[in-house]
């Protein structure tokens, strides 16, 4: 049953039709559903599943609904002009997606970020990670029908959005990290507010555990569902919380520490079972760890100093290429930038965690029940807009 | 023929060595430093990465593998399309690089070539945790064909499909060389080619 | 998290209320009253008691209790009143409306929100009216390949069946739409229509997601009808009758929930499954199959089905109250002096006025009061369960319904039989009502 086989269609019409527009199969048992972009259970992502009764026999992802050609657009703008549109793939986790870009550009242009700027950059990255993970958790709740678990994380997200608003001036798409550091220094009273919010949030995390993770119905629906073994996870090349839930303790912040992460003391949270429950629990553990990191960052931040390195107007990159990556909410987010000595990059390739995790979707869905589809799909930490770039 | 323009690179404090990839027919070249660089350059490549590269070179020989650069945590080698499957198999089995993090294609119209780079990483080997190994290959722009690596690295499946539609590189052996992210009725050039201009720019 | 709207000022609120009253007075006195007089002037009315029935006489007649109360008395005790108003459809619809509003507010408070706030001056009370008007005015879109007769009649049948269940439920001694001897079986027979209507409607929608939803609804409702019925059977064993009024009366000394807690539990879970409420709302699972078998409904069709759903909520909660919580049993909230006595006419005039000359019966009012309170309590428990649970999966649901719940009902039936055999309950028992 667990073979991803397309149902047989013997018809000349199929050859005449354009690719991916296939005539429905004549088999009565199989029904093809399009979990399409206009669906309360899929975000902006389309995938078709073929069901036999209640079991899924074939799954075919079809991204591209929100493809905007980010990589092509990068070639027409210089390094600084690229920042606003590069944030758009993940608007609330924008610090991380620009962080990686900034690291690569700094390597090409050859600038050193001042120490205080590095701390603030890491702080913004952690705050955005919380914002993204809470939103992901909210949508996970509503996918399983738990409306309270949709409302609570969305409300608690406001704590961190308020902080980012005070720090950067925008609630989402902060455009805060830039090559060279951050745009501005932290305002007065930010540290106290941040610590207060973190303390309140840690109390709320306990309540999440009670109402959501310890709920027997939730456990019934996610434990043992969509098991991704460790070997499969490594072979399929998944990343982020999906990988850590299958028993591989890999975190880019530990594997390849960037900025000040080698001075921070934190553990890589991972679980071994690899089912949907583990994939939904690892981000929760990550959030707790993130609070811990934020406290250390606020503690160890140098009291004064520059926050950005001065860039020349129209900075030119040395001819060469750079590949840098950070750990975002979804996984390793890497930028491969080729520069040819002009102010505009020659090629920017974004390697996003969502796109890499997409390959696990047909692998896990085939052979599982239709009712497990939301819990498996969203537990892969898939953000459709980012995967389409 | 190289891909570098003739401008003077900015003085940098990070380790840099310009990538140079040549036509497959020419003999191998070493990482070349531009003559205009000041003397404050990294004297030699990091030992661990060098050791890894020497493992590959000793197995395949210098004529099949061109080393583009060896930097801390980043290695890039360039191979022929005809050798890429066996090189990839060797890398996967012996060096512990078990997944492809990205497959990026770059269009170099000046060389008349498209370079496809497989960025490989390792989850199972602890000392190669932070490494990204770039396996590059080049093919002609006009008839871009490459053998697929999905039998070696299953994780490259969707990336290769995306490279097909964005750059027009046909991967032989890939089951679905089809539109993935672009709409089904895309009837224009592959977008990441340099002759495809965004409207208005 | 704020629970009061920004910029709320009590002075403005009082001012708007006074404005409202002013406008009511103006409209009534300047438009409504003259209209009434004009109509009464032109409509020929019969002479009464030798007087010509002028508008003034008519108005004074309307407020004279001795004339109008017999009419009211007469109307209240007709069948039509019982079916249409109380405890029939209007009462059920009113309870349904209150349930919907309370559900939205209650769920909102649990979820750190406020719920409806702006529609209606006090915490969004008129929100339901606004939603109802909106649904009525929407366009009803019928899919092109659908089976139109069934598409139109299924929602109406849904509401009608829900109302039929309500007609069998007594709200006070003597107040029931249809007093059948086999009332309980009739309730279950009527409840058996719902899976059929759901399936017909989903098939008539001619689309894949409603089809899956309809099949799920069918499986779910059928799976839970058996534990539903079996748990009510233990009540019948103890009460000795299938008539719902008799069952409620039989619980006068002690409610059956003390003797049959397991049955009550199973009945409650089964009624949640019959009502398609969270955690059993698979047929309408939003994130998997869009809206299940309700996907193609729009406008008033959707409104009717929602109304039917909530009327069913009231009906099944009321059934639970009657079967297990003693129906209307409860301490009298009116003093004994207000009870109807044999010589009602010689009672003091104030009492006559208070009880509206016997229209207003202390026993009945107390019964209705307790019945409403208990029903509402059960509904609140159902709402609470909605707030804290995710959705269940179909195979776990069927497993629960067919294996676990039936076993539990049998256990309780044996308990009930043991109680009867031991002479505690049942005919001639120690604790039976006499």
Question: Could you list some keywords that capture this structure?
Answer:
heterotrimer, A: 389 residues, alpha+beta, Cytochrome-c3 Hydrogenase, chain B, 3-stranded antiparallel β-sheet, 16 helices, B: 201 residues, alpha/beta, Beta Polymerase, domain 2, 5-stranded mixed β-sheet, 3 helices, 23% strand, globular, disordered N terminus
Summarize the structure in words:
The complex is a heterotrimer of chains A (389), B (201) and C (434). Chain A is an alpha+beta fold and 389 residues long. Chain A has one domain (70-353): Orthogonal Bundle (Cytochrome-c3 Hydrogenase, chain B), CATH 1.10.645. Chain A has helices at 12-16, 70-74, 82-87, 94-109, 115-143, 147-168, 190-213, 216-222, 230-236, 241-245, 252-255, 276-300, 353-357, 360-365, 373-379, 384-388; strands spanning 30-35, 46-52, 55-62, 177-178, 181-182, 320-327, 332-339, 345-351. In chain A, a hairpin with a 2-residue loop joins strand 2 and strand 3. In chain A, helix 4 (94-109) runs antiparallel to helix 5. Chain A starts with 11 loop residues before the first helix and ends with a helix. Chain B has 201 residues and is α/β, with parallel strands linked by helices. Chain B has a domain at 47-143: Beta Polymerase, domain 2 (2-Layer Sandwich). Helices cover 18% and strands 23% of the residues of chain B. Chain B has helices at 47-60, 84-95, 157-167, and strands at 65-71, 74-79, 99-108, 113-121, 132-140, 145-147, 170-172. Chain B is globular, with a radius of gyration of 18 Å. The two termini of chain B are 28 Å apart. Chain C is 63% helix and 0% strand. Chain C is built from 16 helices and no strands. Chain C has helices spanning 10-42, 55-63, 65-76, 79-84, 89-110, 127-137, 148-167, 183-191, 193-204, 208-239, 244-249, 261-274, 300-324, 349-354, 362-388, 394-421.
